[in-house]
Amino acid sequence: MKTGCVALVLCLNISVDPPDVIKISPCARKECWIDPFSMAPPKALETIGKTLHSQYERWQPKAHYKPQLDPTVEEVKKLCNTCRKFARTERVLFHYNGHGVPKPTANGEIWVFNKSYTQYIPLPITDLDSWLKTPSIYVFDCSAAGMIVKAFLERLDWSSSSSASSLKDCILLAACEAHQTLPQSAEFPADVFTACLTTPIKMAMHWFCNRLLLHDSLEHTFIDQIPGRQNDRRTLLGELNWIFTAITDTIAWNVLPHDLFQRLFRQDLLVASLFRNFLLAERIMRSANCSPISFPLLPPTHQHHMWDAWDMAAEICLSKLPQLIADPNAEFQPSPFFTEQLTAFEVWLDHGSEGKKTPEQLPIVLQVLRSQSHRFRALVLLGRFLDMGPWAVDLALSVGIFPYVLKLLQTSAMELRHILVFIWTKILSLDKSCQVDLVKDGGHAYFIRFLDSLDAYPEQRAMAAFVLAVTVDGHRIGQEACVNAGLIDVCLRHLQPENPNDAQKEPLLLQWLCLCLGKLWEDFSEAQLLCLQSNAPEIVIQLLSEPQPEVRASAVFALGNLVDIGSPSLNEGDDDSDYDEKVRAEINVIRSLLQVSSDGSPLVRSEVAVALTRFAMGHNKHIKSVAAEYWKPQTNLLLKSLPSLTNISTSSNIYSPNSFIQGSSGLVSHIGPVLRVGSDISATGRDGRISASSPIAKNSIMHGSPQSDDSSQHSDSSMLQNASNGGLIYTRSRPVDNGIYSQFIATMCNVAKDPYPRIASIGQRALSLVGVEQVVMRNNRFSSGGAHSGETSAPPSSNFGMARSSSWFDMNSGNFSIAFRTPPVSPPQHDYLTGLRRVCSLEFRPHPLSSPDGLTDPLLSANAAPSNMGLDMIPQSTIYRWSCGHFSRPLLAGSDDNEEANARREERERIVMDCIAKCQLSSCKMTSQIASWDTRFELGTKASLLLPFSPIVAAADENELIRVWNYDDALPVNTFKNHKLSNRGLSKLLLINVLDESLLLVGSSDGNVRIWRNYTQKGGQKLVTAFSSVQGHRSTGRSIVFDWQQQSGCLYASGDISSILVWDLDKEQLLNTIQSTADSGISAISASQVQCGQFAAGFIDASVRIFDVRTPDWLVYMARPHTPRTEKVVGIGFQPGFDPYKIVSASQAGDIQFLDVRRASEPYLTIEAHRGSLTALAVHQHAPVIASGSANQMIKVFSLEGEQLTLIRYQPSFMGQRIGSVNCLSFHPYKSLLAAGAGDNAIVSIYAEDNYQVK
Fold first, then answer.
1. Alpha carbon of 1108 to those of 383, 828, 1074: distances in Å?
2. How many angstroms separate the CA atoms of 435 and 469, rounded?
3. CA-CA distance, 883 to 887, in Å (whole number)?
4. Family assignment (predicted)?
5. Tens of pLDDT, residues 110-165
């Protein structure tokens, strides 16, 4: 909006006073600073008109000006119609000077003349408004001008509701209220209101000079000789105007609502100037008991403290005037105003926050950006402010910062590049709509050049990549502009190291280069063809083995956007050669994605599942035909002809589906029993909706066999057999090799059973797209498979990296908060206590249950009719939106600023040291039962765990039901189920981050690992991450064992498989696969808490081995201490203390062997603890004590010298009942406490020394 035409109506009738005005002597006479009695009246009137024209023209030089001097009603009407016709939809300004006519009437009529100037003719405001229409702005400079405003508002109230827009598009400025008369004092000009609006500096300086104590010593003529130009800030007059603009903007921004400030001070240049000057008019005229008014009504500002700053600037100016006038060549000394205001803003930044008063200097900082001398400091301070959060960005945008920083992109100043990129990063993290203006002004080229520069830090270049990613996100014009500017080549060049031996690139840069590429060619076939010509897929595929899960997920996102979903618009116009090239590249991409489908990070697996679903959409019919061919009923022998998956090359850190499909029989057992292929008829249910009784709506995972399927009771689920019929109309015209389709189906079957709920849902959806129905096995034993009411899950996340601490908030339904947080991607850092490291989890919001079909993920719901099914069925990627949150968080604050967390950690370290010292000196006789808890587990207690810093014990049963209990208060804390699946079995409970907010790792006997946080809050538990630790290694039974090594951040998993898998939970990646070199499986595993990478394993054949991942051969020790017994090793552990060479091993036969790795393989001490019934072994980490339990209802506690310290057989009750068969034993990490879980009566008992005191 701008003012296109200005009507200047002057009713002066010089030398004839109106009848209702009695003038004093001497009185104000000047109009536009001209004495009308200094020349002939006609000449004076013409001169005043021209001067008023020139004064307005200074504020809006491009407007069309039409003066009308002493007019008649017809002349005013003609003037108004002409102005509206010329301005069209732009604003028209109507300036009325009524100093030569009577005051407005009570009805709001203003006065003009008849043709002979013998009468005053009233002009109703209604007529004036009907001629000018809207948008318009009126300036009434006459006595009792408030009458006009009152009548105008009454007319708007009487009008119909359709005039609401007129109310908004009409602005009124009046010189005084209805009962007031204009000042007549000779110290003011007669048109003081007009003088304030059009010549504010001159008026302000005259008024200020009259108020000075020493005003007699200063000649008023000096004020008219202030040197310089108003638009030249390097001159005195220009600097005064600059300071005045900054101060009036600051006053307005601090007292007005932000939407009104935007309307009056940022939309129209002339309107903004008039309202700035109106604030001055209010200050000056109120000193003469006259109150200017406006519509919209402004709050009083004449006493705002920022006027004091203006007075100081004016006084400094007046003190310089005599010298500058005497010596025009004297050097101009800038005012300290802006330097002082920047300092004040800097002080606020040091102490301010969101909850405190907003910084009033923000508009001044905006003005300082116009000065080259202050610009760098202002940008740095502005960057600090924007970094305080989205609220700060919103405030800066409300001030009007956007046009300034947009224009600064045209500068070539090298020192401004880094801070400008930072500021734009902060702006776009809040307001994506800025992308349009950025591309329109060619600003994208600035960021492409910065991204390609090697002199900037990688983190800063990552910001440039973020800006470019937002620029092209869903913006085809932006995509085309960036492609034409060579962004693809720039990104690809920096994705690959120039020298293979170069150090690893900054992960954040790699992450955003991938995301930028993914957004650049998203749904843009021309860019996809260019990327194929640039060999982009091969370059990005190399990043799938990067150690940071964020980088891997971003690479999958970029590759997934290359997968054509088969929309005709994407293939339209492509010739055969281009099409074949795209298909070959797409198949290469899919093969690579199949390799990372078992990645340890749910964030990565989620992106893989989304990409594979796109593949299922584009190749729907061909995949269905392959599924129908290989999985026909009663023809499982055809599975032997399934193309082998061994042609998928597997890297050392990536597993492919072929590694867990061992020949045709393995495929039959793994996939055959859980699939049923639908035909191409009866595609969906009658109403086209997913029934709540369908497997996918129940959140069930495929399980069971065709024989157990009750198809008659699941008729609604038949709609999943062919969701594509009638709805998924896009498909390839030519198929590719059927082998990739078979690999896809095999992989998606595993994805559909992913331990992370959302990923499993995506896999189920992909299978339903290709007609593979999921069969839910009815299992009476586990019929209550639903989650506990307090259980919550969230979207898959980057796991909980060692040095990453942040949140990935739910992106569902498109309603995502910009405040969601993203982890900094940085190398792992050690914590303060030697040997202990912190693993911080990602926090998620639970999925809202908003789908009418009961699906927990609205992104995956399919409640549309078949004719609408298509692109909407593709689940949405979340890595991009989640990653954007990183830049909305403070980036300049240090990571150690959280003093409270550091103090809490130091306090815990002190407690740990005290507890360790006490337990090492204690007798360790666990003779006192301090608590007995009936867990009410149906199948007995399978695992228990004592928390380090609170009197809390966690226990779980074979059904993976987890209960948490306070043993000091004897009160339950929380209860929840580990998962909703019917296939259950618990292996172990482990604690991660014992010195911080600990996480609960729940290892299932099938190898799935789930990690929970907030598990001690009733109903507040959150699933942090979940993955399969033995993906690619099919267990013959259900006996996977685990252990966690805090200082290395590694999880060790093995069992009745031939390998030991070492997972790096910081990288969320498989670190090593160690061959066990034994003919039997592993039954117990224990990680050393002293030596990183070292762990001991006990085998089913009673042998013991120690492995070290740091050595080339891995195996460092092997012994058979339990010979001649051959029962399996039940428990194994490193002896307490810091001696890494001694271990303890207990076999099912009942003997406990003490071994020293430095000696021979023979044990140096043997304890015959139990007779053929040993079921559990616990080794304290610090106290010199071990404990064993047996199925014969007995617990024994031994010293490291073999002395039996305690024998526990009975409950300490009056009846003295037996304790029950022992299923599990666990010591407190730092205290002399022992938790024992029974198998037959499900009681968890906690034992301590006699002197234990409840705190």
1. 49, 21, 10
2. 10
3. 8
4. Belongs to the WD repeat RAPTOR family.
5. 999 999 989 999 999 999 999 999 899 999 999 999 999 999 888 877 665 444 45
pLDDT the model gives residue 501? 55
Predicted pLDDT at 895: 53
CB-based contact 948:991 (threshold 8 Å): yes
**Comparing C-alpha atoms, which of 593, 590, 572 is closest to residue 529?**
572
Cα–Cα dist 1206/1184, whole Å: 14
* Predicted confidence band of residue 652 (pLDDT cuts 50, 70, 90): very low
Q: Are 944 and 936 in contact (CB under 8 A)?
A: no
Supply the pLDDT for residue 913.
92
Q: Which two tokens stand for residue 1178?
A: 């616990």
Please report the pLDDT score of residue 521 as a whole number: 94
- Side-chain-facing half-sphere of 240: CA atoms under 13 Å: 27
pLDDT at 824: 34
Tokens of 277: 């000057």
pLDDT at residue 182 in the model: 94
Q: Which residue has the tokens 């200005």?
A: 6
1015 is written with which tokens? Answer: 């598990």
Question: Which of 601-605, 722-726, 861-865, 896-900 has the lowest average pLDDT?
Answer: 861-865
- β-pair type (136-141, 170-174): parallel
Q: What are phi and psi of 491, to 5 degrees?
A: -65, -45
Residue 1158 is predicted with a pLDDT of 87
Residue 1204: helix, strand or coil by DSSP? strand
What pLDDT score was predicted for residue 1019?
Answer: 93
Q: What is the pLDDT of residue 897?
A: 55
Q: With beta carbons less than 8 A apart as the criterion, state whether 1041 and 1098 touch.
A: no
For 551-576, give one letter per residue: b (16+ CB within 10 A) or e: bbbbbbbbbbbbbbbbbeebbeeeee
Cα pseudo-dihedral 312, 315, 320, 325, rounded to 10: 140
* Burial per residue of 58-73, b for 16 or more beta-carbon CB atoms within 10 angstroms, e otherwise: ebbeebbbbbbbbbbb
The Cα–Cα gap between 678 and 769 comes to 11
- CA nearest neighbour of 1009 among 1061, 1074, 1081: 1061
Collapse the DSSP code of 1095 into the 3-class scheme (helix H, G, I; strand E, B; otherwise coil) and give the result: strand
Largest CA distance in the chain: 134
User: 1178 has which bridge partners?
Assistant: 1187
pLDDT in tens, 435-468: 999 999 999 999 999 999 988 899 999 999 999 9
* DSSP secondary structure string for all residues of 851-877: -TT--S-GGG---S-GGG-SGGGSPPP
Residue 1214 has a pLDDT of: 57
Would you state the structure tokens that stand for residue 223, as one six-digit string? 């004020």
List Cα–Cα distances, 203 to 97, 196, 570, in angstroms: 18, 6, 66
The H or E element that residue 755 is part of is: none
**Residue 1239 and residue 1220 in contact, taking contact as beta carbons nearer than 8 Å:** yes
Mean pLDDT of the chain: 81
pLDDT reading at 1168 higher than 50: yes
Distance CA 555, CA 552 (A): 5
Whether residue 232 is predicted with pLDDT greater than 90 in this model: the reply is no
C-alpha distance from residue 471 to each of 421, 429, 481, 557 (Å): 13, 11, 10, 17
AA letter at 943: A
Q: Provide CB contacts within 8 A for 894, sequence distance 6+.
A: none
User: In angstroms, rounded to a whole number, what is the distance separating the alpha carbons of residues 1059 and 1064?
Assistant: 16
- Peptide linkage before 257 cis (omega within 30 of 0): no
Q: Where are the alpha helices (DSSP H) in 841-935?
A: 879-888, 899-921
Distance between CA 512 and CA 951 in Å, rounded? 45
Q: Which residue has the tokens 């490193």?
A: 1134
Q: Report how far residue 48's alpha carbon sits from residue 18's, in angstroms, rounded to the nearest whole number.
A: 19
Chain-centroid distance, C-alpha 749 = 31
Secondary-structure percent of the chain, ordered helix, strand, coil, rounded to 5: 40, 20, 45
Q: Quick one: tokens of 787?
A: 């989650």
